[in-house]
């Protein structure tokens, strides 16, 4: 058995600046190249499906060979051959085999099945960036700790390369994610003070449900918001993706803004995006249930509308967004991307499989569903494999990337009458939210992966401009008069204000961590996030900017 002292022995330090620089940087460079190779091959696999299972083994061989060569070049040259070198190398090879099974083999086996993870696991880099950017102070502390471990162990002792360059950063990322997710208002993250004009309207003192019970204090996992144009009430949808318990919070709630009362509703799951052109009725799409919930604002009960349990041979089990157009209701499903059209009575009129229509492969992710009343079209933003580029190698090479730009991320526009494709946006962009200008001629779309808000011509979905924005804006909202565009920053809790006429950023003000939803009336801008539901008078917004 190898003793502790032999594990932590100091390796001979390299002589000369060039050798020292090489042995200092080589472990990090080797890890970066291995991860980049894994991510690139994974991306290409997604767009060349179907593939035989042996393709995963073939893709893993260069990765294993590279690690063997890196070990001989880095550790073996400093420590000499022996168990202290080959045993850690065996552990690294086993770890890389596990990553190969996840990123190479799993997508091949999952092809043709409704699996959301096959296309999304390749987005780990953006999850890492989002998580580390969300909490700068604790991220700096963890980063310094990893840097110290790298200096003392990986460089000075030529040991623990896998632990320091992969496992420790991975564990730190998990810790930062949990901090953002479960403790968004913790002292490690909160350095902002909201403006004096900002009012917390829910949960607030005195608010009681029909049983005269207050809202239980908890972190709010808000998803979307609708506010009555007369500022009489609001509806908010909720739901945690992880960490759910038997004591579930409400999945949506109606909040009276004129007197302190609220009505919670429980669906034993979460409710994500919902939009409505009228305050007369709201529709919610419970996650993992093939039904919609119809709600008359202020009522004590809901009406349930059953949807098909399957479409095109795949289940309907991740309803993501629903849009109420008054005389029609539209809903979209994830995993098995499908569109449902219902009349005002709740009768299903048409069902369209976006997979069978050739727009996206099964396993696609729908981010938003909106309607352009002027053109009478539907806009669907999604991420997933584009069937048209699966075997077009030359076209795919045009999207070779360092930051993950590949075909299949786009907005589709469907005609309301036929539900057939009218337009499609640039296939290299993925938009997390869509906001239609009041005149219906421009679309503003926030990027999930970059610091950008794109302006699109609503006539042809061509990009006409780009506005700088916070990373990972989940919600865009126009002011009631259309003069301003508001962007809610999920990471730092700010609302950024833009002048629509000039596209100029006017400033920002802090509201709450994890801004997820906004709504605008003639009097107020409403913002929902982890701290609750807030509002600020429209005439106070500009003075609150910093």
What characteristics describe this protein?
546 residues, alpha+beta, Methylamine Dehydrogenase, Chain H, 2 domains, five-stranded mixed β-sheet, four-stranded antiparallel β-sheet, 29% helix, 29% strand
Secondary structure tally: strands: 30
Strand order of the largest sheet: 6-12-13-14-15
Strand content: 25-35%
Integer average pLDDT: 88
Helical coverage, percent range: 25-40%
Rounded to the nearest angstrom, the distance between the terminal CA atoms is: 62 Å
CATH class of the largest domain: Mainly Beta
Largest sheet: 5 strands, mixed
Note the total helix count.
Answer: 10
Query: How many discrete structural domains?
Result: 2
Strand pairing plus helix content: what structural class? alpha+beta
Describe the protein's architecture and organization:
By secondary structure, the chain is of the alpha+beta class. It folds into two domains: 4-182, no CATH class; 199-544, YVTN repeat-like/Quinoprotein amine dehydrogenase (Methylamine Dehydrogenase, Chain H). It is built from ten helices and 30 strands. The chain has helices at residues 4-7, 17-47, 54-79, 83-110, 117-120, 124-134, 136-155, 161-182, 393-397, 538-544; strands at residues 199-202, 222-227, 233-238, 252-256, 261-265, 273-276, 282-284, 291-295, 303-306, 310-311, 314-315, 319-324, 328-333, 338-343, 348-353, 365-372, 377-383, 409-415, 421-424, 431-436, 442-447, 452-457, 463-468, 473-478, 484-489, 494-499, 504-510, 517-520, 524-529, 532-537. The chain has a five-stranded mixed sheet with strand order 6-12-13-14-15, with no helix packed on it. A four-stranded antiparallel sheet has the order 1-30-29-28. A hairpin with a 4-residue loop joins strand 13 and strand 14. Helix 7 runs antiparallel to helix 8. The N and C termini lie far apart (62 Å).
């Amino acid at each position: 058995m190898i003793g502790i002292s032999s594990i932590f022995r100091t390796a001979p330090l390299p002589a000369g600046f060039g050798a020292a620089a090489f042995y200092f940087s080589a472990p990090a460079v080797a890890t970066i190249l291995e991860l980049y190779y894994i991510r690139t091959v994974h991306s290409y696999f997604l767009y060349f499906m179907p593939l035989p299972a042996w393709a995963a083994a073939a893709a893993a061989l260069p990765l294993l060979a590279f690690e063997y060569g890196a070990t001989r070049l880095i550790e073996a040259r400093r420590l000499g051959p022996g168990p202290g070198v080959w045993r850690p190398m065996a552990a690294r090879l086993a770890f890389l085999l596990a990553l190969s099974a996840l990123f190479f083999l799993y997508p091949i086996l999952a092809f043709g099945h409704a699996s959301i993870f096959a296309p999304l696991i390749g987005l780990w880099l953006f999850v890492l960036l989002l998580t580390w950017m969300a909490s700068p102070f604790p991220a700096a502390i963890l980063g310094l700790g990893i840097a110290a471990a790298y200096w003392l162990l990986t460089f000075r002792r030529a040991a623990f390369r896998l632990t320091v360059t992969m496992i420790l950063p991975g564990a730190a990322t998990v810790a930062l994610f949990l901090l953002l997710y479960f403790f968004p208002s913790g002292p490690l993250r909160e350095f902002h003070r909201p403006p004096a004009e900002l009012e917390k309207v829910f949960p607030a003192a005195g608010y009681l449900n029909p049983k005269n019970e207050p809202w239980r204090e908890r972190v709010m996992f808000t998803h979307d918001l609708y506010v009555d144009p007369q500022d009489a009430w609001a509806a908010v949808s909720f739901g945690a993706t992880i960490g759910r318990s038997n004591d579930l919070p409400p999945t949506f709630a109606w909040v009276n803004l004129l007197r302190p009362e609220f009505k919670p509703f429980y669906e034993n799951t979460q409710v994500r995006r919902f939009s409505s052109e009228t305050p007369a009725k709201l529709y919610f799409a419970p996650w993992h249930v093939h039904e919609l919930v119809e709600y008359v604002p202020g009522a004590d009960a809901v009406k349930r509308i059953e949807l098909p349990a399957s479409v095109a041979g795949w289940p309907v089990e991740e309803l993501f967004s629903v849009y109420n157009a008054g005389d029609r209701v539209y809903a979209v499903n994830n995993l098995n991307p499908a569109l449902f059209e219902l009349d005002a009575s709740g009768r299903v009129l048409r069902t369209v499989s976006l997979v069978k229509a050739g727009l996206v492969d099964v396993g696609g992710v729908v981010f938003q569903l909106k309607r352009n009343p002027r053109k009478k079209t539907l806009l669907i933003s999604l991420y997933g494999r584009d069937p048209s580029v699966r075997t077009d190698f030359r076209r795919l090479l045009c999207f070779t990337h360092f930051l993950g730009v590949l075909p299949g991320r786009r907005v589709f526009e469907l005609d309301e009458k036929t539900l057939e494709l009218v337009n499609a946006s640039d296939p290299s962009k993925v938009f997390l939210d869509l906001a239609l200008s009041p005149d219906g001629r421009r679309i503003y779309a926030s990027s999930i992966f970059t610091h950008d808000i794109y302006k699109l011509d609503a006539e042809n979905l061509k990009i006409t401009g780009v506005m700088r924005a916070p990373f990972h804006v989940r919600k865009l909202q126009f002011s009631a008069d259309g003069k301003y565009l508001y962007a809610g920053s999920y990471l730092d809790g700010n609302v950024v204000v833009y002048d629509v006429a000039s596209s100029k950023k006017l400033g920002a003000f802090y509201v709450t961590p994890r801004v997820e939803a906004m709504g605008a009336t003639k009097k107020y801008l409403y913002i929902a996030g982890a701290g609750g539901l807030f509002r600020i008078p429209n005439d106070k917004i500009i003075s609150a900017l910093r």
